[in-house]
Design goal:
The protein is α/β, with parallel strands linked by helices. Helices cover about 30% and strands about 30% of the residues. It contains six helices and twelve strands. A hairpin with a 2-residue loop joins strand 9 and strand 10. Helix 3 packs across helix 5. It starts with a strand and ends in an 8-residue tail after the last helix.
Length: about 230
């Protein structure tokens, strides 16, 4: 499985990148790929997300520099920002003999193992997609499947600005608290090490070898997408 390690990227650009790579995967022009990146501050709503779960006004969001996008994934309202590791697995469910529910639980397992690697007793809750430490949510998941290929994925709170989560009802869970690896460990956490562990655990859970690749090696590039930035393919 390919791995594309990116930095802090605008949400719109990464959203379009996913669409382009999903199309390539559906056509058999690309192997399965895991995109890892961070986002500039953004709030996203899933296809049935409740807009009332965004608690801040448009003006407050503008002052905070937080964009808002409604997208086609499952789930409700989610925040992304620097210090949060976002993963977009674009893979064929059929090739892995997985149903959608199995796929989501496998993603949870990747994150649970990663958090255990750092000494955090992470777990899943029955009937609620996500990963928790104590009574607080530390990772959110939401995916979309089109013609058997997945996209969107997971967001693991390494060291984001947790104050921004007060602007939403995270994942539509009223009263739920949100935490991060940094808060739980009481010390800084190296993002490159978290990425390394996620890649390792992804390979183990999905029983695949992981091969890092550069953006320029893919059938899309920044230059090709620059003219349509912000528009899904």
């Amino acid at each position: 499985m390919l791995v594309l390690n990116l930095g802090v990227e605008p949400y719109e650009w990464a959203w379009e990148l996913q669409h382009r790579l999903v199309e390539a995967r559906q056509k058999g022009q690309l192997d399965d790929i895991l995109i890892l990146l961070e986002h500039e501050p953004v709030i996203t709503l899933g296809r049935t997300g409740d807009e009332s779960h965004i608690l801040a006004s448009a003006e407050e969001l503008r002052r905070a520099g937080i964009a808002v996008h409604r997208v086609e994934r499952g789930g409700d309202v989610t925040y992304h920002g620097p210090g949060q590791l976002v993963g977009y697995p674009i893979l064929s469910l059929e090739a892995h003999h997985l149903g959608v529910s199995d796929f989501m639980h496998a993603l949870e397992e990747v994150l649970i193992r990663t958090l255990h690697d750092f000494g955090l007793p992470a777990y899943r809750r029955e009937g609620i997609i996500g990963v928790w430490v104590g009574e607080s949510k530390i990772a959110a998941l939401g995916a979309r499947v089109e013609r058997g290929v997945t996209y969107h994925g997971f967001a693991l709170n390494v060291a984001p600005n947790l104050e921004h989560f007060a602007l939403i009802v995270p994942c539509g869970l009223v009263g739920a608290s949100v935490t991060s690896m940094e808060r739980e460990l009481g010390k800084p956490v190296a993002m490159p090490l978290v990425r390394e562990r996620v890649i390792k655990n992804f390979g183990q859970v999905f029983a695949v070898s992981m091969e890092e690749i550069a953006l320029a090696q893919l059938p899309v590039s920044r230059r090709k997408m620059a003219g349509n930035q912000g528009q899904p393919a």
